[in-house]
Amino acid sequence: MYVLTGPDTFSGAEELAYNLQQLGRAVIVGEATRGGAHPREGWTVHPHLEVTIPVARSVNPVSGTNWEGTGVRPDVPCPAPEALNKALSLIQP
């Protein structure tokens, strides 16, 4: 399986890509993702100020870590607009 990623890949899509990569079930093609692994909640502390705090932490059982702040690093790096053609070239000899 090939999973295409780029800077617009975020949150749940990153989790899917990361988990498949760590389990050896997919090859990630494209650019690094944005790096949002920790769910956050916001609280309004003043009419013009909101505080956002992580309320959980994703931990992959294989790697023991996650993609927070670093993003999912592709196995086959290339510009995101070229990821589909790159994946197709890997499939077709």
From TrEMBL:
GO biological process: proteolysis
MF terms in GO: serine-type peptidase activity
InterPro entries: ClpP/crotonase-like_dom_sf, Tail-specific_protease
Protein name (Swiss-Prot/TrEMBL): Tail specific protease domain-containing protein
Pfam families documented for this protein: Peptidase_S41 (PF03572)
Residue ranges annotated for the Tail specific protease domain, each copy included: 1-77
CDD domains associated with the record: Peptidase_S41_IRBP (cd07563)
